[in-house]
Specification:
Elements lengths: L29 E6 L3 E10 L2 E11 L6 H4 L4 H20 L4 E6 L1 H5 L3 H12 L4 E2 L2 H12 L9 E7 L4 E7 L8 H6 L16 E8 L3 H7 L6 H14 L5 H4 L7 E6 L1 H11 L6 H4 L3 E3 H21 L4 H21 L4 E5 L3 H13 L8
Parallel strand pairs: 1-4, 4-5, 6-9, 9-11
Antiparallel strand pairs: 1-2, 2-3, 6-7, 7-8, 10-11
Helix pairs in contact: 2-4, 5-14, 7-13, 8-13, 10-12, 10-13, 12-13
Amino acid sequence: MAPERPIGAGAFPKPVESPAPDTPDPGQLYAALDLGTNSCHMLIAQPKGNQFHVVDSFSKSVQLGAGLEKTGRLSRSSMNRTIAALKVCQQKLKRHQVTRMRLVATEACRRARNARDFIRQVRRDTGLQLEIIQPEEEARLAVISCAPLVSTKTDQLLVVDIGGGSTELVWIDISSVPNRDRPKAIMRLHAGFHPPESPFPAAKVVDWISVPLGVATLRDQFSDVEDDAARYALMSWFFEENLAEFAPYKDEQTREGFQIVGTSGTVTTVAASHLGLRRYDRTKVDGLRMTSDQIETVIARYLELGPAGRRRDPRIGQDRQALIMSGAAILQALLRCWPTDRLSVADRGLREGLLYAQMSADGVLEDGPF
């Protein structure tokens, strides 16, 4: 059920532009664009059975939220970088003649005082109409994109989406759903976290939270701390403090039947480092299960490398080296809080959720999961 993607269309910060192998019918194409605090990502795909096939993609670090913590506004340079990336996206959409699309912006645009002005400038300069979505929809879309990775043995599920400006956590109880139907029950949450009562067993969202701390915003909170290890420790404990009101955090959880699925560039980069990949391979990363000891080993190695070493590491690179430690701090805090020694890695997220939701609404997925 996992979406098919060209190798390399995933986690690293270099622009990804994978051309379509054939010229598909434009009437079958859908697009999803995710403009976050740090990155701009887009997928163009066509339905294929009960999933989809990606025919083109784009990914670039634009740092839209740079300086937002201090000023409360999107800077001129950040907006210019982002608009340059969006012009590339617009060219791809035009070349493929895509008409079905959702183009969304998240935390940086939710928080910035001048976000509406920016949205208007994007429309004027590129012709693209961005839509600022709320945290619940962002979390919901991330959840349904990860559903194919949910084990049929899972009773309690925590889906974690570590973004640039915020981190969404969704706790789901699927213990009353027949084992074989559990991934599909997660998919059905596309209609909302609290759907109308149904006589059929359904996934129940126990609680969800959007923490206004992602890899960029958490880094900015502690940018004045010079010592690398001290900054990392402070970021991890500070993130945990922000989970105090999350219901599952306050109550002791059982270890049996528990699963964490993590989706983000942080999680996929840690996985690539663990595997020792010299070139990113989504087929090896997506769905990988890592133990907490393996994750701790990777993070310890990052700390040992220091900023200069992380910058030279091909799995991290120039753009992500300043962000990987704040992401790792969030990851460590989560593994410290919940009763599991394993994390399922998802190279998927908001974009895939947007595509699934659009295709489901149009009824073009065969034996669709929704």
